[in-house]
Amino acid sequence: MQRSTTLNLPDKLVSRAEAYAAEHGTTMTAIIRSHLEAITSSGGNPIADDPLLAYSQGQLSRNEAIRLLGLRDYAALLVALGDADLPMPSQPPQDIENQATSFTKLWSQS
Question: Organism's domain of life (predicted)?
Fold first, then answer.
């Protein structure tokens, strides 16, 4: 269950946080949730405690997240991420570099 909460923060802080979130492909809600999870963690297993958050942070594979959350498929996982206002996990830098190299080769061939 999700709960909506109002926070009273200085305008400048909100502006900086929004800019940071945009630069990092996330949301203020996800940043706040992640920070609150980190500071209130009992030292348990974050993957078992919140598989959706662990997937969003790149700590869990797609298939493992689907299994742990009891979802039917990747589409349901995407919906769950959206409902929780969590960003998609980032790909490792090496994967991004490989994709860019492949794209450049394909583009130059056309």
Answer: Bacteria
In which residue are the tokens 């790909």 written? 91
Q: Which two tokens stand for residue 71?
A: 């979802």
Residue ranges covered by each domain of the chain = 10-41, 44-89
Predicted confidence (pLDDT) per residue in 67-104, tens digit: 999 999 999 999 999 999 898 887 767 778 888 888 89
**For residues 63 and 91, is the Cβ–Cβ distance under 8 A?**
no
Residue that has been written with the tokens 């203020």 in this structure: 28
Nearest to 62 by CA among 17, 52, 46: 52
* Secondary structure (DSSP) of 10-72: -HHHHHHHHHHHHHTT--HHHHHHHHHHHHH--SS-HHHH-HHHHHHTTSS-HHHHHHHHT-S
Residue range 33-55, pLDDT digits in tens: 877 877 777 666 666 678 998 89
One-letter amino acid identity for 97?
A: E
